[in-house]
Amino acid sequence: MNTLTAEYFGQDPKIVKAVKVARNVAVTKVPVLVVGEAGVGKKTLARFIHENSTRANKPFVTVDCGTGSTQVENEILGYREADSGRFVKGALENANGGTVVLVNIDALEEDFQKKLHKILGELEDYDIDLRIIATTTKNLSKLVGAGRFYRGLYTNLSSNSISLTPLRERINDIEVVANNIIRDCFDGAVTIEEAALQKLVTHYWTHNVKELKAVLESSLVNFDGDVLSEEQLEIGEKKVVNVISEEDSEGIRLMSLKEAERLLIKKALVHTSENRTQAAKILGVSIRTLRNKINEYRTEGNSYFVNLR
């Protein structure tokens, strides 16, 4: 991918403001927290911060904190191989001088949150100089209040917080972002006809930029021409199945209809950081219907819905 510019992210005032904050914070070494829905471009903004810092020529390492507690701890801190006894360095050492991005930091186990907070405060003692960027789809402040995220780590990260607006809430940016994707992936040799563009603009982008990129890649993989038409645009109608991850899609066929319905509602709420209005739109139901379902599951004692605020 080409070096990122501020214009890459779009022209909506909210996104312009977010990118300006990112550029300003890039010249410092302070931690940054990037917040936004899945697929909105949090990791891309993290790379923009890295590229606009004095660390641009140093390592840029990402760790997905949602891949399992033992694996995540090993990836961050390193581990010793059981057979050879050889120590394998983790991200904190491998990225010395550069940037480490902790993706989905809300997924860290509580005990490791405390351990990581302590270690980050002691990096200078080990001659390790890092910029830490964390990303999340959640409201960490609420998680702290609910006792589900360590306050010390949150305080360390949240002093420089940047929120990214969902793509569907900045319609005028869809054409800009689509053309940027085409430029990066297809050398900008393709244009989008007006009818196809209108179809992109009116689509409900559940998974934001990530989904838009997937649609364009799918449409252009066997494309032979220079103008993408509406008929050639492989974009389906909004389907609730979009909120099911690949690993869930096999198991859902083995569930009862009621269990599948509950899973879909939970997935929609998690995806929207528990914003019920957005979740209802994704599911294609009224907010009243969603509220009734939540109350039903809460009465049944389902732990997620009992704890839902």
Give an account of the 3D structure.
The protein has 3 domains: 6-165, Rossmann fold (3-Layer(aba) Sandwich); 168-228, Helicase, Ruva Protein, domain 3; 241-306, Arc Repressor Mutant, subunit A, CATH 1.10.10. Helix 12 (257-271) packs across helix 13 (276-283). Helix content is 46%, strand content 11%. The protein starts with 12 loop residues before the first helix and ends with a helix. The protein is globular, with a radius of gyration of 21 Å. The protein is α/β, with parallel strands linked by helices and 309 residues long. The protein has a 5-stranded parallel sheet with strand order 2-5-6-1-7, sandwiched between helices. Mean pLDDT is 87; it is low at 237-254. The protein contains 15 helices and 9 strands.
CATH architecture of the largest domain: 3-Layer(aba) Sandwich
Pattern of helices and strands: HEHEHEEHEHEHHEHEHHEHHHHH
Number of strands: 9
Biggest beta sheet summary: 5 strands, parallel
| Low-confidence residue ranges | 237-254
The CATH class designation of the largest domain is Alpha Beta
Gap between N and C termini: 40 Å
User: Can you tell me the CATH superfamily of the largest domain?
Assistant: P-loop containing nucleotide triphosphate hydrolases
Principal-axis shape? globular
Q: State the secondary-structure class.
A: alpha/beta
Q: At the third CATH level, what is the topology name of the largest domain? A: Rossmann fold
Q: Fraction of residues in helices? A: 40-55%
> Whole-number radius of gyration?
21 Å
Number of domains: 3
Strand content: 5-15%
Nearest-integer average pLDDT: 87
Helical segment count: 15
